[in-house]
Amino acid sequence: MIGTIAGILTTLSFVPQVIKVLQTKDTKAISLGMYLMSVIGIFLWMTHGYIMGDMALLIANLITFCLALVILVAKLKYK
């Protein structure tokens, strides 16, 4: 139960940032290095979930990966 709640909260924590970036196109205060490392790390967790057959880990990180990737792409696009 705790793991499920933690997974939901950490996954959804990217949603407000995605909304703000898409609305304002302002990415000055976002660290490119941090989001680059985050996206790579999330991708690796997603891959680990796939290899281990852990669907909860895979799905949570797949959603998080997509959200973080939107922010990373916006950071590169709206420099």
TrEMBL record:
It is found in: Membrane. One of its GO terms (molecular function) is sugar transmembrane transporter activity. Keywords: Membrane, Transmembrane, Transmembrane helix. Pfam families: PQ-loop. It comes from the Bacteria. The chain crosses the membrane at residues 29-51, 57-76. It is a multi-pass membrane protein. The keyword Transmembrane applies. Gene3D superfamilies: 1.20.1280.290. InterPro entries: PQ-loop_rpt, SemiSWEET. One of its GO terms (cellular component) is membrane. NCBIfam families: SemiSWEET_2. This is MtN3 and saliva related transmembrane protein. It comes from Trichococcus pasteurii.
